[in-house]
UniProtKB/TrEMBL annotation:
UniProt cross-references to InterPro entries, sorted A to Z: Mito_RNA-Proc/Resp (IPR051240), PPR_rpt (IPR002885), TPR-like_helical_dom_sf (IPR011990)
Ranges: PPR repeats: 94-128, 161-195, 196-230, 231-265, 266-300, 336-370, 403-437, 438-472
PROSITE patterns the UniProt entry points to: PPR (PS51375)
Chain spans, region Disordered: 1-50
Low complexity biased stretches: 1-20
Gene3D superfamilies listed in its UniProt record: Tetratricopeptide repeat domain
Gene Ontology molecular function: mRNA binding
Name recorded for this polypeptide: Pentacotripeptide-repeat region of PRORP domain-containing protein
UniProt keywords, alphabetically: Repeat, Transit peptide
Amino acid sequence: MVSSASTASLLLPLPSCSSSEESDDGKPLPPLTAQEASSPPPSQLKRRRGRLERDYNVAMKALALSGDVDEVLAVFAELRRSLADAGDGGAAPNVLCYNTLVNALAEAGRTEEALRALDEMLASGVAPNASSHNILIKMHARRSEFDLAWELIHKSEMEPDAATYSTLIAGLCRVGKVAEAWGVLDWMLEKNCLPMVHTYTPIVQAYCREGRIEEAKLLMVEMERLGCLPNVVTYNVLIRALCDSGRFDEVEQILVDSRTKDWNPSTVTYNIYMNGLCKKGKTKEALEQLDVMLGEGMDPTAYTLSILLNCLCHDSRLLDAIYLLERSTELKWHAGVVAYNTVMSRLCEMGKWMSILKLLTDMIKKGIEPNTRTFNILIHSLCVVGKFSLAKSLIQSEGFAADVVTYNTLLHWSYHCGKLTGANRLISAMEEKNIALDEVTYTIIIDGLCREGKFDAATGYFLKSLKIGLSMDVLTVLLNRLACADRIWEIHRIFDEKDFIPDHLVFNLTIRTLCRASYCHYRDFYKLNLILDKMLERK
DNA sequence: ATAGGGTTAG
């Protein structure tokens, strides 16, 4: 279990609020007066409680917004302690605080902990409200448990509102089930529940993700017709899609039009635009947008800085990037862990190990805590400069939760250094620590084993990988290796496996791979025939 | 006062 929830809630201090920009207004609570401390009247006690909960909730939300879930946990624990000390028998925090906590955990993908927090809330006798209900539905939707979500909506006494349906629609759209999303929309209309921007925006986003930009635009026109005006979020979704396909003229047009429409671009809008320009190599234009944004009186956020640094790094202006990073505090630009990670990973690609170390010490000095990604970059760069053993020993470091990326990095370099037993030990360690192997892991293992001539073992890992679903990337790597090494019996073994369900894409890939490996030559043609037969058996 | 849109690692 990676969860540092319990330890974090015991050990971490109150939020200093220095890391998050929004929470500076969280004034310290006034100290108890002597009278309050001895035996405050119940009404005053209640007021104090309310104030305490509100202030803590504000802080928790700010932290959740800046993605600092562990801090949210810490603040919640602190709140619980304060309430216990406040004198009325250790009453639990109210629903709103619990909702903030559960939602922050759910957003961070820490579903188990979110569910535990929810259980704890119920056990403390705190009654859930409509929001708690919606958050739970969102969790089910995120895990693609739509049946459960639907069941919850029906059997609950809570009357589903537009937010409930919108949550479900968003979940469906996330996994590309747009038709089902429309189905829910129809259902809510039947129930006389009026859709809102939150209902349509996920559908617009789903269209955008599939590259159906024109349909997305049409839907936005339809929204206007229905009096459900697209807002800044809807436009941001569209702008991102336009950026991804390089349609910057249209982005400009939308920004111009915004002045006569009912929405205003936000910092996020410019972040999206700048990042889009940067990804298409238009550094100069991206920096121009920064000026536009500052001219509009908008403050850059931690995101803005990371995007700009990324931009500079891609333009190989590393010295500028490092300079900006070092000066960020005096410029009042918020450098966060992502900003440092961005620059460090670029330095890593260039093998500048000493510079990475310097940035690492800088960030720690500034009180910015390195996260798992920071460690992964560190480990990767150690591998690049040939310090593999040192890199490997870093997994044991205190306070660092190695994840699948960490292990993938180490695995890749184990094979690279020819350390097969070491690689096997790493795989066992993953299993012990319940870190699930992903597509990348299997690709690395299969490629590594094949390079050592261990085709049988590699094929075995491929068959194992089917448990997490067929990945064309993994299959491509294996087929290439097997074909080049003329290991047709292993290819047979793949097609014999009953868990392997080949479709036309698989057939296509197999035949193309074999032909490229010169199986079309007349002397080898019989082998191709054998495999074709095998494939047709499975049809 | 629950929700949505933006950045980094293999």
